[in-house]
Amino acid sequence: xxxxxxxxxxxxxxxxxxxxxxxxxxxxxxxxxxxxxxxxxxxxxxxxxxxxxxxxxxxxxxxxxxxxxxxxxxxxxxxxxxxxxxxxxxxxxxxxxxxxxxxxxxxxxxxxxxxxxxxxxxxxxxxxxxxxxxxxxxxxxxxxxxxxxxxxxxxxxxxxxxxxxxxxxxxxxxxxxxxxxxxxxxxxxxxxxxxxxxxxxxxxxxxxxxxxxxxxxxxxxxxxxxxxxxxxxxxxxxxxxxxxxxxxxxxxxxxxxxxxxxxxxxxxxxxxxxxxxxxxxxxxxxxxxxxxxxxxxxxxxxxxxxxxxxxxxxxxxxxxxxxxxxxxxxxxxxxxxxxxxxxxxxxxxxxxxxxxxxxxxxxxxxxxxxxxx
Length: 373
Description:
By secondary structure, the protein is α/β, with parallel strands linked by helices. It folds into two domains: 2-188 and 354-371, 3-Layer(aba) Sandwich (Rossmann fold), CATH 3.40.50; 191-352, Rossmann fold, CATH 3.40.50.2000. The protein is 35% helix and 16% strand. The chain is built from 13 helices and 13 strands. Strands 3-2-1-4-5-6-7 form a seven-stranded parallel β-sheet, with helices on both faces. Strands 10-9-8-11-12-13 form a six-stranded parallel β-sheet, with helices on both faces.
């Protein structure tokens, strides 16, 4: 069996959205001929934790955790860490050199953001002469980078054997900027995590994930109030007064669970009769991982936003409808259509988006990269 060093800043028990992709590689690549070693950062106490995700990491998988130096006071650390993750690079690079020196590996796979993972992989590839694959969940940070970051990205990608993106809009952006082939491997869901014995609650709209001021749901609340609907939020809130906003819109049927372990969160979300996505205008290239949880749950999806990667994906895959977040009549009409029983996605259509299917594609790219050496 070949070995691959996976560099993933976010990894369980961190409960953030980015951990699922790296966890998918670790869970499925061993069955495809690749034994992973993981180089990750330890989850900060202020981040969401989900210890149940650790159970999906095989007993034979080595996970090396390297703490990033953070000059801020302890109280200021936590989820707002994105601009300082480059400080992880020195310690992670040293740890990677030690891992590759102690145990022979055949390839390196880095998933980002943060871009420090790609920087570490690029330098380790140069030092070890191992091929590496750059996996982009977002373009570099969380949005299309400016000139300085694009130059950094191009420099890091020069040594990559393959470049991978999670959606076609992002892949097209990377192809244009990097002038290289970019392979598409979508995110996915784990079928064994999807509950099959939960009945859907009529007229219940579910949003899965962190609720923050970026989520433009005021028009949705008014539409739900007008058609006797219910809003259920499964996840944490950040600087967002859900009860006040719902009351102002006249919506009384509203619930928020707070952060839950993934299994419990998916079980509660499964009771929805429509699933919600909310877009940010400045994140045109991102495709939220919750989109694939919604696919696993069977949909349908109501996307509040009409442009960008998420809206394009919802339309192209026939997952539901996309409407402007402030168009209350259009939201109400879309809800009435999507609440119909025939809106649920067929199981065979969802098979393309399992995490195992993505791991098969990644294993093939790893084989191609190593066969060139």
